[in-house]
Amino acid sequence: MVKVIAGATGENVLSVMDMIGVSQSTFRRREACNETLPAVAGHRVMGFLRVAASLRRLSEESGDPWLLKSFDLEKWVIRWMRERLAELCGRTPAEMLRYPEGQRAVEQVLERMRVGCQHDY
Q: Out of 21, 44, 100, 112, which residue is the most buried by the measure of CB atoms under 10 Å away?
């Protein structure tokens, strides 16, 4: 999954692993043995994918379809994941996705963004 995320976002694998909190040694060791990542890393990857899917839905629901054709959503998701947010006490969404409580906090931020977009009309 890490390679899929890297390919979809244009980021290198090491950058994606760092963002979701997976150590390079763990990734390389597991890859060499053709093993899956530990469950905790899998939960982080799934959290990242949920956030990316939520941001995609949010942009599709609230954006102009014509403008969205030229919008690089994947690059924007990566930038947003690394942005320090006041709503997360100055932490980045990527940092927060490393913990179940943090994943819930990021999901709450996304929900507030979604509700806010509905009120913009």
A: 44
Arithmetic mean of pLDDT over the chain:
82
Cα separation, 102 vs 106, whole angstroms: 6
How many whole angstroms from its chain centre is CA 80? 8
- Tens digits of residue pLDDT in 74-97: 888 888 999 999 999 999 999 998
Q: Taking phi first (over 0 means left), then psi (-120 to 50 degrees means alpha), and beta for anything else, what does residue 89 get?
A: left
The full DSSP string for 1-46 is -HHHHHHHHT--HHHHHHHHT--HHHHHHHHHTT-PPPHHHHHHHH
Model confidence at 117, in pLDDT bands (50, 70, 90)?
low
Quote the pTM value.
Answer: 0.74
Q: In the chain, what are the domain boundaries?
A: 2-119
Matching residue, tokens 């990242």: 48
Encoded tokens for 43: 């939960």
CA–CA gap between residue 6 and residue 3 (Å, rounded): 5
